[in-house]
Amino acid sequence: MTTVRSRAKVGAVASAAFVGGLMIASAFNLTPFGYAQQSATASKPAPQVVQPVADMNNAFVSIAEHVTPAVVSIQTEHIARNLPAAQRRRAPNGQVPPGLEDFFDQFDGRRQQQPVEGSGSGFIVSPDGYILTNNHVVADADKVTVGLLDKRSYPAKVIGRDPTTDVAVIKIEGSNFPTASLGDDANTRVGEWVLAIGNPLQLDFTVTAGIVSAKGRSAGLAALYGSRYAIVDYIQTDAAINPGNSGGPLVNIRGDVIGINSAIASPTGYNAGYGFAIPITLAKSVMNDLIKNGRVRRAVLGISIRDVKAEDAQVAGLKDIRGAKIDAFDSGAGDISPAKRAGMEPGDVIISINGKPIERVATLQRIVRDFQPGNVVDVGVMRYGKSMTFKVKLTEAPSETQVAQADDRPSDRKAPSFDKIGISVEPISPERMRQADLNESQRGLIVTDVDVSGPGYRQIFPGQVVLEAGVAGPRHAVRTVAEFEATLSKAKAGDIISLLVFDPRSENKTTLVVNLRVGG
Fold first, then answer.
1. Were both Cys, which of 73, 473, 479, 519 would link to 147 (CB 3.0–4.6 Å)?
2. Strand partners, 256
3. Which of 363, 395, 402, 230 is nearest to 297 (CA)?
4. What does pLDDT average to over the chain?
5. CA dist list (Å): 259 to 135, 237, 471
């Protein structure tokens, strides 16, 4: 997301990406500076203390001098397209005086033709002018201009963009450009020193320092992407990243780029301690595809997944809480899901791909990203304590489609309540089945209410349909309240109840597995 500024008046816009203040680190306007003074005079440190500090100081200076010439500022322009006249005919009070419709049409048309501007950062990766940056920096841009440290300016062409990783490649014409060295984030350790370089708050070529705070960050960050195929696997750092840093490099102590600065966690839109960078190994893979093909061919298993919780691990029979749990199948490019065709089931926990262990969803996504559509992979899963392996032929991810959800409000009638998991259900009526376009295999118990203090809160939602239930073993179909009650009666406090849930409001009307721990 980039800051929007009109030619007439420079402004700034920051959009909340999720509750808690996750912000895209794109361009933002400069705010007034504050000053801090220290009146106390510290005693002179001992020589044995001074030398290591001096070495670190020289290292930072050397890295900044080496990398900054390859960092660029990016300015974008986007021409706002005219809306249909019916949407533009509005005077300040919302009404157009009779006879002045044409006047307001012309005024609104001129105003909307003014370009909106944005800015961000990037870094040159080849002497002939290829530049890595964020997708959100150049998305929808009609004009892109690149500025170098030595004040040279070049028009740039967008070579390709990938919304699923927020990576983009642009190019300027020329030769012998300074380049940044690309490293390997796999070898990066939490606690290592890093530098963030970019153009925050309209302060070009700013260098900040910090450490790698964490790796493999994904929880909550998917809200930054508009894609259900997004690969969310961030490096977290406390090096100051602010609006305008988007697309700039995160550099290790050896001067190698290990990430593309992309987002910040902040309640205000400014640096509040933590920023996030896309791992460079992922970015390089996307970059190669974009340069070679102009687009990214994404291989997928055809599943919806989430990180494993303690309850999921217990149901699957895992000793450790790790892996990626299959919630539902995705039909992919219109065909049956490759994972479903291979024999996998919702609730299975994926623990390996071709023998490589899977710790979390981000790990699975990055490993699958290295394959091409049509490749066959061995997928290791755990199912009720049994280790199984399936051969899955990967398919190509389809183009993105807009998610549309049905409005399926539950009945106001009081439904049977099950306090063990904090939900109320009732049999789904033929009329409701017709409204939701459900078939006989999707008949079950519709959730009418969820207790905010129960285990099901934020795990299962009104309007969803419980198809199967099980305790300490395989699930079985539940069509009546009595069948559901009989299953739950077997569960004691601390046991896991595994539910197969159908969501008629989801884009593809898919099923998912919800594992709930019975309350005391």
1. 73
2. 181
3. 395
4. 76
5. 14, 10, 44
- Sign of the CA dihedral running 479, 482, 486, 487: positive
SS (H, E, C) 265-311: ECCCCCCCCEEEEEEHHHHHHHHHHHHHHCCCCCEECCEEEEECCHH
CA distance 213 to 439: 49
197, HSE (Cβ side, Cα atoms, 13 Å): 28
Q: What pLDDT shows up at residue 114?
A: 58
Cα 439 vs. chain centroid, distance in angstroms? 33
The whole-angstrom separation of Cα 434 and Cα 480 is 19
Cα–Cα separations (whole angstroms), residue 28 to 125, 143, 199, 379, 424? 25, 19, 10, 45, 47
Q: How would you write 242-255 as a 3-class SS string?
A: CCCCCCCEEEECCC
Is residue 178 within 8 Å of 166, Cβ to Cβ? no
Total Cβ atoms within 10 A of residue 484: 22
Quote the CA–CA distance of 173 and 435 in Å, as a whole number: 57
% of residues, the chain, pLDDT over 90: 25
Distance separating alpha carbons of residues 196 and 260, to the nearest angstrom: 9
Q: What is the pTM (predicted TM-score) of this model?
A: 0.62
Q: Which amino acid is at 88?
A: R
| SS3 per-residue string spanning 370-381 | CCCCCCEEEEEE
Q: Which of 440, 436, 437, 410 is nearest to 425 (CA)?
A: 410
**What is the distance of C-alpha 369 from the center of its chain?**
15
Question: How far is Cα 191 from Cα 138, in angstroms, rounded to an integer?
Answer: 32
Q: Is 147 exposed, middle or buried (0-12, 13-18, 19+ CB in 10 A)?
A: middle
Instruction: Yes or no: say if 394 and 376 are a contact pair by the CB < 8 Å rule.
Output: yes
User: Which tokens is 161 given?
Assistant: 């963009």
Tokens of 264: 């910040």
What stretches of 384-422 adopt beta strand conformation (E)?
Answer: 386-393, 395-396, 417-418
Q: Residue 108: what are its φ and ψ, rounded to 5°?
A: -65, -40
Q: What are phi and psi of 173, to 5 degrees?
A: -85, 135
> How remote is the C-alpha of 443 from its chain's centroid?
34
pLDDT at 360: 86
Placement of tokens 């006989």 in the chain: 440
Which residues form the catalytic set?
A: 136, 166, 246
